[in-house]
């Protein structure tokens, strides 16, 4: 594939527009269509002079050629749209979460294998310099055996985010706090340490009873299949602004803490016979005005798509890894049914 890779984007909200912008900036890419159910005049996409469609069906019937379609619609639509597009012979990039349940993720992967199409899962936190550094520390064995891992995700999501007209907070379209807010961090944990087992969980809904259909906070503990134990503590009940996203690792040869609002700083590195190098700066978080999101690394995702489709590199986050993140969240949420959380 020597010519430009042709992209369409489904969903023209904050993240969809970020995809469109990164595609437009890449000299090896061409944006050929935008798709959203809302009226075009409400979306702020005037700068993109490409055909606009109100559904995936309408786009597919238009006959416009696209190699790959980026899906940045509400979570509850990801599976249905991705499955339809793969069936139509398109590669897809699916924003997190890939689906809202493991069964749908398996169906999508099966369809992609059948059609010989790639499914790229978006987990852009893997591209930040602290993530790449800690991945090398774990894989090289410098830390030795992993004893304990603690993940803390304390964010603000209030009525500036959970608006009545929005899909955020709706059970069928959002899926839950772990799916929409913190799946990036579960992905990093899985990427570094593998699968989890022996999960225990406690959930609460402190100040979102009138805003969402699900919990806003949780304490989760578990064992890693590969050894060691871990915990995930999360909340969207923090007043006014995000507090932190951090990961603390206690290991045989040392202790490491990655912190900051978006796990963008190595705060502690005490490792036997090791001197911390200077890392490249992390990209700033996505700024949505009243609230902030994860680091703005979407350009790396587009670059990886181009490299994979042109045979220059391997996929950074494949569909099986996307499935595992969904599987882990689904197993955590299954514990709500055990009487420790009132729905």
TrEMBL record:
<protein>
    <submittedName>
        <fullName>Gfo/Idh/MocA family oxidoreductase</fullName>
    </submittedName>
</protein>
<dbReference type="InterPro" id="IPR000683">
    <property type="entry name" value="Gfo/Idh/MocA-like_OxRdtase_N"/>
</dbReference>
<dbReference type="InterPro" id="IPR055170">
    <property type="entry name" value="GFO_IDH_MocA-like_dom"/>
</dbReference>
<dbReference type="Pfam" id="PF22725">
    <property type="entry name" value="GFO_IDH_MocA_C3"/>
</dbReference>
<dbReference type="InterPro" id="IPR052515">
    <property type="entry name" value="Gfo/Idh/MocA_Oxidoreductase"/>
</dbReference>
<dbReference type="Pfam" id="PF01408">
    <property type="entry name" value="GFO_IDH_MocA"/>
</dbReference>
<dbReference type="InterPro" id="IPR036291">
    <property type="entry name" value="NAD(P)-bd_dom_sf"/>
</dbReference>
<feature type="domain" description="Gfo/Idh/MocA-like oxidoreductase N-terminal">
    <location>
        <begin position="5"/>
        <end position="120"/>
    </location>
</feature>
<feature type="domain" description="GFO/IDH/MocA-like oxidoreductase">
    <location>
        <begin position="134"/>
        <end position="256"/>
    </location>
</feature>
